[in-house]
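# step 3/5: fold
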Amino acid sequence: MATISNPQQTPSIAAVVADRVGANPAAAYDMNAACAGYAYAVAQADALIRAGAARHALVIGAEKLSDVVDPADRSISFLLGDGAGAVVVGPSDTPAIAPTVWGSDGSKAGAVGMNHTLVEFRDGAAPWPTLRQEGQTVFRWAVWDMAKVAQQALDAAGIQASTSPRSSPTRRTCASSTSSPSS
C-alpha cells in the first residue's frame, strides 16, 4: 500500500486490506514515499516476482490528502487531491514494467513537506500539520533535475526520447494511478 495519508501508524493499512480481501497471511506493508510511492511499490512488486519471492502482488496507491492540505495554501492545494488506484502484478513472458531508476534527494527536504510534526501538534506547540512546498525551488528541481532522471530512465529502458510517448513524471507517479475530481 503506497500512501502518506494513513492516519494510523500501526497496524499497516496494507495488512488490514490483505485481511479484508482474504489474503492472510500475505506479506503486506505500507510504503510512505509520497508521489514516488506507487512507482516504488510497482517496482518492488516486479522485483519480488522476478526473484521468485512472490507469484502475484496487489499494489494499491491511495491518498486522502484533503486531510493534510490547507485549501488556502495556493502553493500546493491546487496540485493535490484524494484518489486511489490498484494493479495486480504477476509473471509474464513479455514483461511490461520497465527497469527502475531509483533515487531521492534529501537535500530538498525543506522544499516539500509538512509544516509541523504530530508531536508539536499533540503538545499544543503548533496547529494541525499540513503539506506545503516552496514553489520556485520545486519548479527549478522539476525543470532541471528531472530531465536528467528522465534520460536515465530512457537509457535503462533502452529507448530514445524521439520514440517515447510524452509524459510527465509527476503526473505518471502521482496521478496516473489515481482517480480524483482534482486530477
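# step 4/5: annotate
The chain has a mean pLDDT of 85.
# step 5/5: archive (pending)
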